[in-house]
Amino acid sequence: MNTMDRMHSVILCILFIDVSKCSIILAMSSATATNHAVRVGIVGSGFAARFHYNAFTKVHGGRVPGLRVEVAGVWSPNEANRRKFAAERGLTEFASFEALCDAVDVVDACVPGNLHEPMACAALGRGRHVIVEKPFTGYYGDGSPDFRGETFSKEIMMREALASAQRLVDAERASGKQIYYAENWVYAPAVAKEREIIEKSGGQVLRILGEESHSGSHSPFYGIWSCSGGGSLLSKGCHPLTAALYLKSPVRPAAVSCRTHAITKLPAFQDLGHLRTGYKDIEDYAAIHVIFEDGMVADIFASELVLGGVANWIEVYATNHRTRCNLNPVDALTTYNAKEDYFADIYVVEKTGTKQGWSHPAPDEDWQHGYPQEMQDFMECAATPGRAPLCGSQLGRDTIAVLYAGYLSAERHGAEVRLGV
Question: What is the spatial distance between Cα 301 and Cα 241, in angstroms, rounded to a whole number?
Fold first, then answer.
């Protein structure tokens, strides 16, 4: 048989392969790229570590056939919390941060903001991908015992916060690994759908409105600038802001103006006990105005002044459509409870003041907020060389640039601050 005859025979064989067998072969071939589980190590044992772990358990093959995730274990400097966290989930306790890094592919840094840069840079330096929670980084004081964020120079804060963000980006580039910025709003189903609408409809986004407001943070350290890096603008505003930057990308922010207020510290404030108060040196209300490179705008609101659960939403006004994304509350489920005690052991929705009467329980709050979806994307990226996450270091850096420019603008009574992004 000559060469041409052999080629014809091969072609004929291929044509007669059963389609179902072909699909199996292709799937097996794709799965060979993921011939072991993506190993994840969790650093921390608090609130974020708990919902991150839950999200990891929901990761599936998705667009990477054969994808598996193994939570290899946990390390936390708090021995008691670490032991409890590991025991409840059947996880290995690592003796040190370094030992955890050496045993995994991805380090999940569920730590306070002031530890994001050192932890992430250390993990990247050891050749590991790293998940960085929000806010990406920030300015956490000059180390002096009398530091007060509300009076400290915002120009210095902005410079130092941007330097921290740049060190993270530089460490990522030098390592050849990736930073996965865990801003769940980017992955929330409502926001993801709006991104699809923008891309497929060809509409131009003219303005965006967004808000995240609560009745006060769960954390006992929130309200102290040296622990949290700021107040409502940073900790709450980062969510709708990053979503707005994502929906406008690749167009980037160019200028910012902002006002911040400490409403619960005002002499005229009437404290009825429903809102958290007693913040040391942060704001509890902020409104930030962003101008993009194309001249279009976004207005983001963030506060600690909302009763009846959280207010998480973003609204897009485009040339051909208008979309409101309600992350929380949603009305997929409404229920009436005649007596508070009946729902004593039932989770309804975050920070609701009462479970009595009509309410909007969250059927799956993690899903509607995008937590499983973000971990799915991150794990698929870790298993696929060269694939970048939807939410990475540039979005993290741009968010920090906008937020700290906002603090500088507020210090200047709302004057516009230009960005050099």
Answer: 9
Per-residue CA distances from 36 to 30, 70, 74, 116 (Å): 13, 9, 20, 28
Q: Is the pTM of this model over 0.85?
A: yes
State which H helix or E strand residue 106 sits in. strand 106-109
From residue 335, give the alpha-carbon distance in Å to each of 256, 326, 338, 342, 348. 42, 18, 10, 12, 10
The distance from CA 259 to its chain's CA centroid, rounded to whole angstroms, is 24
DSSP codes, 173-226: HHHT--EEEE-GGGGSHHHHHHHHHHHHH-PPEEEEEEEEE-SS-S-TTTT-HH
Q: Divide the 421 residues of the chain into consecutive groups of 10 and give the mean pLDDT of each group.
A: 43 36 36 69 94 95 91 95 96 97 97 95 98 97 95 98 98 98 98 97 97 88 93 98 98 98 98 94 98 98 94 97 94 86 83 80 88 97 96 98 98 96 60
Residue 97 corresponds to which amino acid? Answer: F
**Is there a contact between 94 and 103 (Cβ–Cβ < 8 Å)?**
yes
